[in-house]
Structure prediction request, 380 residues.
Amino acid sequence: MQLQSSHFSKGRWSAPLPSHYDSAATLVLAFAAPEFADHPAPLAELAAVFPNSVIAGCSTSGEITGSQVQDASISVAVARFEHSLLRYASTPIAQPGDSFAAGERLAEQLAGPDLRAVFVLSDGLGVNGTPLVDALTRQLGAGVLITGGLAGDGSRFKRTWVLHQGQPKGQTICAVGFYGQRVNVGHGCDSGWSNFGPERRITHAEGNVLFELDGKPALALYKSYLGERAAGLPGTALLFPLAVKREGADQDTLVRTILAIDESRQSLTFAGDVPQGGVARLMRASTDKLIGSAGVAGAQARSTSRLSVGPTLAVSVSCVGRRLVLGERTDEEVETVHDSLPAESTHVGFYSYGEISPTVPGGISELHNQTMTVTVISES
Prediction:
């Protein structure tokens, strides 16, 4: 596998785009600030330089290149595979209720006997990530690793997009399938958040919309915890996500972040499902724990990949909420991942509205929030 990265900022590329890498076995990943939807010339240049390649990407809440995080930029990795095949798939997503069907449509396009892994990038606002990932897992089988994330829009929650045919497009999900026995894909996932306050029963929820906790309006109860910070909702909710757990003590806890609030219905809308009958608890984090958890995710990704030497593409997807908590220490989170990767790694990624990865090594892929996930891809 041949690898090269470049970074577009202030009107220029940090390194020339390797046009000689262009082929049907070449993957171009581009993670871009949301405003490039209105100024798409650099993205159009990518499409022109790599007309035969598989191009995928999305809008972000911060672009990751190497050991740094930047804004108003585009982070690009170009990987030419020597022994593996790639396939691009996409589907529109009209509303969150269409998420499971959208996952089925993607799976139908990607299914194949040699499929090893799928990397998914979705519109970050008009989707419910839980049924999307569930459909992909059910249709493709437990042997196919699914990772990726939901597009971001800073902390604005107004407009997100993915790259489709080289152009920014909203209400769309895209995915890349990796095929062949010589492609090696590893994954890592860790959050670093801590629970606080009492557990509360989820007494009324429909999909990713939470209406009641302990029989009380969810929004009013949540506002009572936030106090003065409630005036900044939904943005300030990124600092205080919920830990949710389905019924049964042996179930994994998932982190859920609020995407929207509805004053009239006193409800909270999340990026993934909130299980009625389960329990929820508020969460908070320290900067040191978040930075440490990023290193855990990176090390996990390296350990689950069959290859630890040679050119490696590493893609980090972390939550915008983590970035808000970390503030000026955000680069430390990315540096921690970078330091945990194999020596010949090319590292790119983005800050997101949701992260897709198995919770534990060898587990089933799920939708996460407020979590650092790392995918590493190489060839043997």
Notes: Residues 194-284 form one domain. Residues 287-304 form the longest helix (18 residues). Helices lie at 41-49, 99-110, 129-140, 218-226, 287-304, 320-326, 330-340. The chain has a mean pLDDT of 94.
